[in-house]
Sequence to fold (349 residues):
Amino acid sequence: MVEELVAAGLAAGSACLVYGLAAAKVVKQYERGVVLRLGRLRSKVREPGFTMIVPIVDRMHKVNMQIVTMPVPAQEGITRDNVTVRVDAVVYFKVVDAADAIIRVEDYRFAVSQMAQTSLRSIIGKSELDDLLSNREKLNQGLELMIDSPALGWGISVDRVEIKDVSLPETMKRSMARQAEADRERRARVINADAELQASKKLAEAAHQMADAPSALQLRLLQTVMAVAAEKNSTLVLPIPVELLRFLERGAQGAPQAGSEAAAQAGSEAAPQASPQPVASSEPGEPIGAPAEQRQAALEGPAGTEGLELPGSEVPDASEIPLEREVHAHGVDGHGAAGRKPVDEPSER
Fold:
């Protein structure tokens, strides 16, 4: 009898232990428990920690609330500018409502994956190749909106969507490489032309400075010779600037012009110096080549009438002195002062 009671007690204890083990559940911190009692959703979602359910009657589903990183398989499509590309992406999402993730969708992970693939194909067809390569931020936002809109009804929130890689055909890669090379070459030529323009302006300024100081050209030539000689070459070439030849040519042309100008200036200076030549006078004390008025004054003055005494005759008047002719200093043209040349004096004088 005692043995039977002991066996019954052991059986009951074992049953209670098994029931307790079946009813006891532990929910982790990053999980939520959704309990279905006889297929009906319990309104209360089990929080993290220890919880109890009714075995066989209740069934609990644990939902992970962490952010899930899901890669989207590469999708091949044609862009709006008719370029075939292959694009892959990655989606970051998390469950915000555990009950909806279990009740409203069969497999929320598979649903999000399919939605991401279809949205990626749609965004490829609406975009151009340049947008896929350079304007990815805008495309990422468009993909996020396209995936997040239906996922909200499943209790899922999409955090981010990133396009990882865009694969192009080999022909397109070669074409883009040629385009980039041509653009680089164009920019290099523009930069080179700009440098030549700036250098020409500086050379023009230097030429003006050397034109004001011709000795600077000689100094520059000497500097060039020194630079060439420093390289220890066996052959030394001395460049002769064209400006130097032009300078020498201008100097050669300027010498005859200076001689002609000097001759013309000497002739112009000699013309005013030509003055009336004095004519010899026969009377003592009378200025050579003096005009009639001066000779009259000389005769009438103290040295004329009073200082001069002629024996046996009176002093003749100045007007009575015979004159032969008037002699002009500069010939027949009448320029200059005219003088009178007296004739031979009378024998009595």
Observations:
- The CA atoms of residues 47 and 155 lie 17 Å apart.
- The two ends are 216 Å apart (CA to CA).
